[in-house]
């Protein structure tokens, strides 16, 4: 069922993206209500469609109650119905996303990151070609609204350029677009923030890990997954070495990104 799961991930990300674009163009002027409806309606669509297409699979969603039965399940869909809710509520910003990933028996096996306002979906059914080579100067994705001190210090150590942008999914896939060379986060995320981007990044041949170089793993009892690194493999050793030089305090005081 592997390739069918890849295709389904893309289809679901696209369907949720279409719904969100329609909602955004509906004329709703209360931005708080736009964000609330975006989260809720995309969650409802994704969970309904998964119940139809994969009724035996478990689901972990940012917007849903955590069904602990997933801990005994062999297959769990990990979804973020609207990654970058803040950015979604600031038209015409396009740096928000939909995340759909499938975890199966310990591994991410399928995923899609829909970027509806950019009319682009990156998915494991047709992994995008990654940029190759070693950049002259590293570019690091960073939160547009609240750049964390940890990444600012890391950029100084690497003599890297910071490139501000919105949601976690957009920052992660910016490495595939060639907009940046690395996305480093150390301030507290959850499994739904990174599962789909990591699945796509791995399929495309990028380096993905925790900031100490250990593997990213999913479907844990506590879905907190506080840090990650996604980057070109050619620069992973250099970035990991620079991170290792930072004090623990610099890491733990980073604010949570969107």
Q: Kindly state the percentage of residues in helix.
A: 25-40%
CATH domain class name of the largest domain = Alpha Beta
Q: Please, what is the average pLDDT?
A: 93
* N-to-C CA distance: 33 Å
Q: Tell me which oligomeric state these chains represent.
A: single chain
Q: Overall 3D geometry?
A: globular
Architecture (CATH level 2) name of the largest domain:
2-Layer Sandwich
Which value, in Å, is the CA radius of gyration?
A: 17 Å
Report the CATH superfamily of the largest domain: Fructose-1,6-Bisphosphatase, subunit A, domain 1
Class based on secondary structure composition and strand pairing:
alpha/beta
How is the main sheet built? 5 strands, mixed
Strand content: 15-25%
Overview of this protein structure:
- By secondary structure, the chain is α/β, with parallel strands linked by helices.
- The chain has 2 domains: 2-123, Fructose-1,6-Bisphosphatase, subunit A, domain 1 (Fructose-1,6-Bisphosphatase, Chain A, domain 1), CATH 3.30.540; 139-252, D-Maltodextrin-Binding Protein, domain 2, CATH 3.40.190.80.
- It has 8 helices and 10 strands.
- The strands form 2 sheets. The chain has a 5-stranded mixed sheet with strand order 1-2-3-4-5, sandwiched between helices. It has a 5-stranded mixed sheet with strand order 7-6-8-10-9, with helices on both faces.
- Strand 6, helix 4 and strand 7 (161-165) form a beta-alpha-beta unit.
- The longest helix has 23 residues, at 2-24.
- It is globular, with a radius of gyration of 17 Å.
- The chain starts with a helix and ends in a 6-residue tail after the last helix.
């Amino acid at each position: 069922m592997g390739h069918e799961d890849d295709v389904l991930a893309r289809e679901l990300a696209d369907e949720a993206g279409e719904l969100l674009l329609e909602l955004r163009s509906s004329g709703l002027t209360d931005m708080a209500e736009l964000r609330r409806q975006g989260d809720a309606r995309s969650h409802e669509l994704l969970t309904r469609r998964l119940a139809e297409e994969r009724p035996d699979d478990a689901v972990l969603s940012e917007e849903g109650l955590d069904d602990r039965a997933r801990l005994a399940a062999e297959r769990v869909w990990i979804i973020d119905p609207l990654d970058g809710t803040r950015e979604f509520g600031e038209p015409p910003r396009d740096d928000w996303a939909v995340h759909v990933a499938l975890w199966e028996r310990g591994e991410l096996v399928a995923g899609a990151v829909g970027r509806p306002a950019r009319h682009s979906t990156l998915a494991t059914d047709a992994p995008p070609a990654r940029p190759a080579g070693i950049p002259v100067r590293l570019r690091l994705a960073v939160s547009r609204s609240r750049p964390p001190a940890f990444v600012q210090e890391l950029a100084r150590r690497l003599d890297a350029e910071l490139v501000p942008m919105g949601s976690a999914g957009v920052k992660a896939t910016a490495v595939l677009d060639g907009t940046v060379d690395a996305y480093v986060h150390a301030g507290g995320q959850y499994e739904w923030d990174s599962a789909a981007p990591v699945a796509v990044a791995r399929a495309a041949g990028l380096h993905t890990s925790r900031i100490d170089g250990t593997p990213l793993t999913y479907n844990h009892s506590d879905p907190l997954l506080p840090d990650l690194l996604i980057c070109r493999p050619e620069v992973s050793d250099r970035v990991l070495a620079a991170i290792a030089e930072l004090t623990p305090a610099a890491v733990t005081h980073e604010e949570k990104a969107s």
